[in-house]
Amino acid sequence: MNLREDRLLVIEKQLVERGRVVSTELAEMLGVPVDMIRRDLRDLAGRGVCRRVYGGAVKPPVGASRVPGAQLSELGLRAASLISPGQVVFFDAGRTNLAIAHALDLELKATVVTTSPAIAAALIPHGNIELVVIGGRIDRLAGAAIGAMAVQSIREWRFDLCLLGACAIAEEGVTALYVEDAAMKRALIDASVEVAVAAIAGKVGTRAPFHVAPLTRVSRMIVEKGAPVAELERIRAAGVEVEEVGADE
């Protein structure tokens, strides 16, 4: 069986019936390479269908939300490929960055730092990742620690890559909905060699109340297709490498 969507349906059925699947067993049953099964499981995890564990995947706990959805899965898979083995990477909070966490290869060896409990929980099964959680007061709206304690801790780090969560991004730059979140994002940018943003189409060309940084501080952007073309051109003109993924609206 080689048709991808057919494989995904079979895997999902196995998860429902058995509660867990093993990559090598699926590869033998479906007659495909194990690496192909691992990619399928990353995709299903990105859709919230399963939770990946070493050697396979398990069904999410009852009541767990299907976060992120298929809309974010392709963004997550592409953005995950930006991370190189051995890097120190900061994951900002947000559903798109949670999709990236779900999409990471279980074999990846890297250091991941985050202030998001949800992202930290998603990465616990990744035994090859050195996982560091920066604490402080958890802001429930932001879904992360964003206060002064967290900002102070960030200043002690130097990240190879920051996956910045953008509440809004436009010609004027990156903006945030909350003043403390904006301060946190500025500290992250200052502590990072490279800054990348993954965003759904609806965030492009929008503005939030609090300024974070001009576009010159962002090196790469991965965006869902369907974002305003003129706005993307202005972002590219500012020097940002923009890649569109997924299907057009």
Largest sheet: 7 strands, parallel
Helix/strand order, N-terminal first: HEHHEEHEHEHEEEHEEEHEEEHE
Summarize the amount of helix as a percent range.
25-40%
Based on the structure, what is the oligomeric state of the protein chains? single chain
The CATH topology of the largest domain: Rossmann fold
Radius of gyration: 18 Å
Side-by-side strand order of the widest sheet: 6-5-4-9-12-14-15
Q: In total, how many beta strands?
A: 15
Extract low-pLDDT stretches: none
- Report the β-strand fraction as a percent range: 15-25%
**Total count of helical runs of at least 4 residues:** 9
Net shape: globular
Count of distinct structural domains:
2
Mean pLDDT: 88
Secondary structural class: alpha/beta
Our measurement of the CA-to-CA distance between the termini, rounded to an integer number of angstroms, reads: 30 Å
Can you describe this structure?
Strand 2 and strand 3 form a beta hairpin. The strands form four sheets. This protein has a seven-stranded parallel beta sheet with strand order 6-5-4-9-12-14-15, with helices on both faces. The chain folds into two domains: 4-58, Orthogonal Bundle (Arc Repressor Mutant, subunit A), CATH 1.10.10; 70-245, Rossmann fold (3-Layer(aba) Sandwich), CATH 3.40.50. With 249 residues, it is α/β, with parallel strands linked by helices. The model has no long low-confidence stretch (mean pLDDT 88). It has helices at 4-18, 23-30, 34-46, 70-80, 95-103, 117-123, 148-154, 179-190, 229-237; strands spanning 20-22, 51-53, 56-58, 88-91, 110-114, 129-133, 138-139, 144-145, 159-164, 168-170, 173-176, 192-199, 210-213, 220-224, 241-245. Helix 3 (34-46) packs across helix 4. It is globular, with a radius of gyration of 18 Å.
